[in-house]
Amino acid sequence: MSPGFSFLNPGLAAGLAGVAAPIIIHFIFRRRARIFEFPAMRYVLLAYKKVARRLLVQEYLLLASRILMAALLALAVAGPLWSHVVSGLARGNKPLAVMFVFDTSLSMSRDAGGASLLDRSRERAAEWLGQLQSSDRVGAVDGTRLTDTGLTLSPDKLRAKIADLAPATAVARLPEAISLAASRLADIQDRERMIIVFTDLQRAGWSGTVSRPDLPPVYIIDMAGKTIPRNVAVTGLRISWKSLAREEAAQVRATLANFGRDPVSRALVRVEAGGATVAQGFVDLPAGQAVDKDFTLTEVPAGSGRVVVDLDDGMTGDNAAWFHLKGGQEVRVLVVDGEPGAGVLESETYFLNQALNPRLYARSRIVPRDVTVAGFAAAPLSEYQVLVLANVDKLDPKDVARVKEFVTNGGGLLFTLGGRVNEDTYNAMWGDLLPRELRGVKTSYAGAQAGGEVRTMHIEMPALDADLHPILAIFRDPAQADLGLAGFSKYFLMQQEIVPRSRVLLRLTDGAPLMVEAAYGRGKVIVFASTADHDWNDLCVHPTYLPLVQQTIQYLGDALMGEDTGRMAAGSLIEIPAGSDVTGASALAPDGHVIKGELVEEETNRRVRIPGADLPGVYYVKFGRADRPAPAKPDPATADRILVLNVDPEESDISRVPAEEIAARAGGQAKVLGPDAPLNPEAPEATETNSYAGIMLALLLAFAVAERALTRKG
Is 470 in the same domain as 354? Predict the structure, then answer.
């Protein structure tokens, strides 16, 4: 059949001559008024003319509807057809086995003239599916998620599967997808095999090479050949803190990149937190370059937020980067003084209390209460988030059990040691609550040659480029002073671990651990191996004492100002370390749906996997335990883990791979074609035909109803 307009029954199209019948009937049988001269009629003549004009319009509408009804009836019977040419599939004498591979990455969501590149891919695939026969077998591979339908579907069933393909935000893995498609075709012997890949040739999706040597013909359909490259993205976030008091100011630095060919002027960038815009500004983005934009947030609400660039660039999925701010709440601390002393300055906890609630900072977020060992028994631990045992020698077994229960339920515990502590008593009393067993007091002597002179040890700070513990992160800033200036003359030694169970936060210059942390239940325990006052060290008189104490208590109370700026990419493999009591997990996704976590156990490595975390945003994870299964819908306020996922910056870069390089990555078997090009120039063109008889009948019915209404009105 030739392209263009035609009829299924051309002879019946002669029925269009029937449109003359309503016209003839109208003019032959229209009513003619007889004229009578009656003088009184001149009084109503004006009203009569108005009615006559209305009736004339109504008659012409009635005539038009009858003409159209006659024409539509003739067209419907004749069977109107519209045919257009589509490129044909390369078909031999055998049935076909075709695997379609769809690049569903974020770059395929770009606008391509009113529809996305992925939608255009679906349309093109549907045209080819329309050429296949019921005996042909087809399948599809999601080139980003690496899932497939197998090769058992008929063309009609695959069309429905393709319509359900959801766009992803992760980077495509097309060489792996082609290998997967080839594996599905490997055992097919009695059919012509081929792989058709729909992609925009984005470089990020073509890392690696196709691993199978037995590739059938591979056709790469370039869906973005005529699309103008244009994309602006938020590719990075960094948040730092300017103060330690309650007036913490967050410094937000957003990196914005222009991956297009044209510069962008005065793009509006906003910072959203707590459901409102808290800062905004404009930025100019040169073509092909990245620019940093800084914001200072003086009011920092805890919770999720994002940095957004307000720009319609045709690919808005990477126009925002999410972050999560935590901490900032008030921390109530119970400080148990193990050596009160005769005067205030002689108290074990004097300097500690001054650092916890310094008078110079009226808005300090830490509220300490100081009690003696005798008063500790009457203190309700449920009212506090952190407990400090400062040089406490012994506690009643009931109080020891209370402390362990407090930490197990999520409380924070800080041990500071001193002369009243006996290592054997502590090891027996606290057991596995201590991060490491104590091994006695060490006095740092210079040696016999120096006449027994004490040689002080100093804190050895980790390298600034190391992954610093949250407590120590602020000491990257030289303005916070140097921890290494404080001198230590006495300190407890701790047991070395063969299997690491604890983390050493600070060491002295002789390598001895000074500050050690370990988890206990849902809480945290830190041991400071020296005193909190000036008996064994002079840390308390140095400027670093206050920030170190403040950071430690806020960390133990889960109130330390911190952030997650989405270092994990949406769509990547998300796994969370899990304790021995964890039995599962559930995660609340940004769109409100719940993902069931999968527990993975490999020897001593237990972790929870969160599958299908494709959306950028904040995920709230709640663990299930033996006594409490994972909830059906996690509460963000009680989440055990909070994960921030953002678009991989590689996916925002829409630079393309040359056709020659793609052919090489596919083992030289691939051909790169435009969306309208035939897969094989020698393959015959196919004609796709659509019938419009149904539309004609529907219009006929509509005009029949209109004609009936006009007739009754007349």
Answer: yes
Residues 209 and 667: their CA atoms lie apart, in Å, by 8
pLDDT of residue 694: 78
Least confident range from 50-64, 131-145, 443-457, 594-608: namely 443-457
pTM, two decimals, is: 0.66
Residue pLDDT, tens place only, 282-315: 999 999 999 999 998 877 667 889 999 998 888 8
pLDDT value, residue 215:
87
The CB density around residue 337, as the number of other CB atoms within 10 Å, is 24
| Strands laid side by side in the 4-7 sheet | 4-7, 80-86, 686-691
Domain that holds residue 642: 566-649
The CATH number given to whatever domain includes residue 583 is 2.60.40
Domain endpoint, select from 499, 531, 560 = 560
Among the residue ranges 288-297, 351-360, 394-403, the one predicted with the least confidence is: 351-360
* 692 occurs within a structural domain: no
Name 232's bridge partners.
Answer: 258
User: Tell me, what DSSP letter sits at residue 511?
Assistant: S
- Beta carbons of 574 and 561 less than 8 angstroms apart: no
Are residues 222 and 271 both part of a single domain? no
CA distance 398 to 670: 75
Report yes or no on 302 lying in a domain.
yes
Q: What is the pLDDT of residue 450?
A: 44
298 and 387, same structural domain?
no
Q: What is the reported pLDDT for 148? A: 92
Angle, helices 693-713/45-78, rounded to nearest 10 degrees: 160
Nearest CA to 402 out of 384, 418, 421, 416 is that of 384
Q: Tokens for 601?
A: 């156990």
Nearest-angstrom CA–CA distance, 139 and 150: 5
Contact (CB, 8 A) for 414 and 552? yes
Backbone angles phi, psi at 202, to 5 degrees: -60, 135
pLDDT single digits (tens) 140-171: 999 999 999 988 778 888 888 898 888 898 89
Whether residue 704 lies inside any domain: the answer is no
SS3 680: coil
CB atoms within 10 A of CB 329: 12
Domain edge (last residue) among 539, 560, 581: 560
Q: How many CB atoms lie within 10 A of CB 549?
A: 26
Q: Name which of 118, 554, 64, 511 is nearest 314 in CA terms.
A: 118
